[in-house]
């Protein structure tokens, strides 16, 4: 593929992603902010090792029963560092929590009958992009991604139980050098915006400090 063809493909993808972001933000009326994490929907954002997962777990600890949706890739012998991260998260969870390890986060959220903690949307999005053929930019990948993210946005907005979602904040860094990095950043930014639009509270974790976003 020539550089000009790659440029046109990238521009087309960017336009489609912006349209998808607008569609996600427009699903239903925005949730009225109450700045109260009890009984509603809370989005917890933060960078790597910011303390976002620990904070979300503290919030969820207020409930007597919790459904923990582990949305990332399962541990693998091929990636010992990731396996160690998964093991650390498992060890922190209270034994009475119900853990659901799945890539079908939308179904798990809809089926939950106790307060939900989703950790995290960034690792889930990696699975979605991988399964949709985004990295190779296979035909139809954008539509497949749009459909899955749209379904999740609807499930989040309609959630009948208290819900906490953890996600990565990736919009403050440099522009990724690779096309795959830019796709991930742009799609996650759109997803975070859609989830925040339909959340009762949004928290940003920076160096272990909790910031309340209006």
Automatic annotation (TrEMBL):
GO terms for biological process: cobalamin biosynthetic process. The keyword Transcription regulation does not apply. The active site is at 89 (gmp-histidine intermediate). Pathway: Cofactor biosynthesis; adenosylcobalamin biosynthesis; adenosylcobalamin from cob(II)yrinate a,c-diamide: step 6/7; Cofactor biosynthesis; adenosylcobalamin biosynthesis; adenosylcobalamin from cob(II)yrinate a,c-diamide: step 5/7. Keywords: ATP-binding, Cobalamin biosynthesis, GTP-binding, Kinase, Nucleotide-binding, Nucleotidyltransferase, Transferase. It holds the Pfam family CobU. GTP binds at residues 46-53, 70-72, 90-93, 101, 119. It comes from the Bacteria. The keyword GTP-binding applies. Transmembrane segments: none annotated. InterPro entries: CobU/CobP, P-loop_NTPase. One of its GO terms (molecular function) is cobinamide phosphate guanylyltransferase activity. It catalyses: adenosylcob(III)inamide + ATP = adenosylcob(III)inamide phosphate + ADP + H(+); adenosylcob(III)inamide phosphate + GTP + H(+) = adenosylcob(III)inamide-GDP + diphosphate; adenosylcob(III)inamide + GTP = adenosylcob(III)inamide phosphate + GDP + H(+). Its EC number is 2.7.1.156, 2.7.7.62. Belongs to the CobU/CobP family. Catalyzes ATP-dependent phosphorylation of adenosylcobinamide and addition of GMP to adenosylcobinamide phosphate. PANTHER family: BIFUNCTIONAL ADENOSYLCOBALAMIN BIOSYNTHESIS PROTEIN COBU, PTHR34848. This is Adenosylcobinamide kinase. It comes from Prauserella isguenensis.
């Amino acid at each position: 593929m020539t550089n000009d063809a790659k440029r046109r493909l990238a521009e087309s993808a960017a336009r489609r992603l912006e349209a998808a972001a607008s569609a996600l933000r427009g699903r239903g009326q925005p949730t009225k902010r109450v700045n109260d994490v009890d009984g509603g929907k809370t989005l917890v954002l933060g960078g790597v090792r910011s303390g976002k997962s620990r904070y979300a777990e503290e919030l969820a600890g207020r409930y007597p029963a919790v459904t923990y949706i582990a949305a990332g890739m399962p541990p693998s012998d091929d990636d010992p560092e990731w396996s160690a991260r998964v093991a650390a998260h498992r060890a922190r969870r209270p034994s009475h929590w119900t853990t659901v390890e799945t890539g079908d986060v939308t179904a798990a959220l809809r089926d939950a009958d106790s307060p939900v903690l989703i950790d995290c949307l960034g690792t889930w999005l990696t699975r979605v992009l991988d399964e949709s053929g985004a990295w190779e930019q296979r035909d139809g990948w954008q539509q497949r991604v749009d459909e899955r993210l749209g379904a999740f946005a609807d499930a989040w907005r309609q959630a009948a139980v208290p819900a906490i979602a953890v996600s990565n904040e990736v919009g403050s860094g440099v522009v990724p050098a690779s096309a795959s990095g830019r796709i991930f950043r742009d799609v996650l930014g759109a997803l975070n915006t859609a989830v925040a639009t339909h959340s009762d509270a949004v928290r940003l974790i920076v160096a272990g400090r909790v910031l309340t976003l209006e």
